[in-house]
Design a protein that fits this description.
The protein is an alpha+beta fold. It contains 10 helices and 12 strands. The structure holds adenosine-5'-triphosphate and magnesium ion.
């Protein structure tokens, strides 16, 4: 049995370790789930001070969607099961949330749960981004293969039509052949555009201004909005020129605008297209006043053929991600009940 001075000394030593540690330490009362200790590393991650957390229920600092998971883990601990690792999101003071991976044990004789955690937000984000890039690669490969396969029979049909056109005696007959060839050429040029999305063909970039592309596109998107009883607002700040492929950027803006318009009701809601600079980045933002993105598909955005729409192909966003990647830009999404904003961030 240690005497009181010895115990105090040990506590002091332990406290030094907790203060120094980069891992997060947390002690929770196992009955009330009230927090009784957190170390400075935990304070730093969550943004609240010890005083603000101690004596409050730990669940108040956990993301709403993860509270049940935490309760389950506490129950498993109390049932004597060994809890290895689990991840929950902490609700930080600045409104953000951070993923923390915890190891926890129950000390029944003290009635306490001890947790050691590690902030894994960054590595989780990187993993998600890698998965998204892999999906984009799949789209690229698929687009290349499918386009190739379709172009060959088209070329054959076109050849025969040309033969028939040359043989056609009546003017009307020749006119039909010409129309058929024209339609085939149109389909072919569409496929060429689509193929340009794939890695096999390098795209031409030239130095130009994002605002000019948007201004040129404005009549088209305005007409599109008007037809569906919605409005478009442009808020274009002066931005430096970027190396862009105009056709692809047009396509990307159209896809984002179309999604924004489709997400809104027909009562004069606004879709805003904005450009601005932020540090070393030029940002294109498309903001709608819809109901937000379905949480079940949010993590999988960009997956080809993922759609919640009756007539959607689910290719719009995967094409956007692919175009952004070719422009070394990234896409960030903010979404909630008040609407969704897609941010395309180009590096200078
Ligand atoms: N601004 C938005 N607001 C709400 N949901 C969105 C928004 N943008 C995309 N989504 C969701 O993401 C899904 C995929 O979008 P994507 O553009 O890839 O395909 P789509 O719009 O369904 O079909 P397509 O673009 O081929 O017409 C949509 O079905 C929709 O559920
Ligand atoms: Mg779409």
């Amino acid at each position: 049995m240690l005497d009181v001075t010895e115990q105090k000394k040990n506590q002091k030593v332990l406290k030094r370790f907790f203060d120094l540690s980069k891992d997060l330490f947390c002690i929770v009362d196992c009955k009330s789930h009230v927090c009784i200790y957190i170390n400075p590393a935990f304070e730093k991650v969550i943004g609240y001070s010890q005083n603000e957390i101690i004596n409050s229920k730990i669940s108040s600092f956990i993301h709403r969607e993860d509270q049940q998971a935490l309760e389950n883990k506490f129950r498993e601990l109390k049932d004597g099961l060994s809890v290895k690792t689990f991840e929950v999101r902490c609700k930080c003071k600045d409104g953000s949330s951070k993923w923390v991976e915890w190891n926890a044990i129950l000390a029944p004789e003290e009635g306490l749960i001890y947790g050691v955690g590690r902030d894994v937000t960054e590595s989780k984000n990187i993993k998600e981004e890698m998965a998204r890039l892999e999906r984009v690669n799949v789209v690229d490969r698929m687009a290349a293969a499918v386009t190739h396969e379709i172009r060959n029979p088209l070329a054959a049909v076109r050849g025969f039509l040309q033969l028939l056109e040359a043989k056609g005696r009546e003017a009307q007959e020749q006119h039909y052949y010409k129309e058929m060839i024209k339609e085939l050429d149109r389909a072919n040029s569409l496929l060429t555009q689509f193929l340009a999305l794939t890695k096999s063909e390098p795209i031409k970039m030239c130095k130009q201004n994002l605002n000019t592309i948007i201004e040129n596109l404005y009549p088209l998107i305005q007409a599109e909005a008007k037809v569906s009883g919605k409005k478009i607002s442009l808020k274009l700040e002066k931005v430096p020129d970027l190396h862009l492929n105009e056709d692809q950027i047009r396509q990307m803006i159209l896809n984002l605008v179309k999604n924004g318009l489709e997400a809104m009701q027909q009562n004069g809601e606004y879709l805003a297209v904005k450009t601005f600079t932020e540090g070393e980045k030029v940002i294109l933002a498309v903001k709608d006043e819809g109901n937000g993105i379905d949480p079940r598909i949010l993590e999988k955005l960009g997956t080809p053929f993922l759609t919640t729409k009756k007539d959607g192909t689910g290719l719009g966003l995967s094409v956007c991600y692919s175009i952004a990647k070719r422009h070394k830009a990234d896409i960030k999404v903010e979404t909630g009940a008040g609407g969704t904003t897609f941010f395309v961030r180009f590096s200078l």
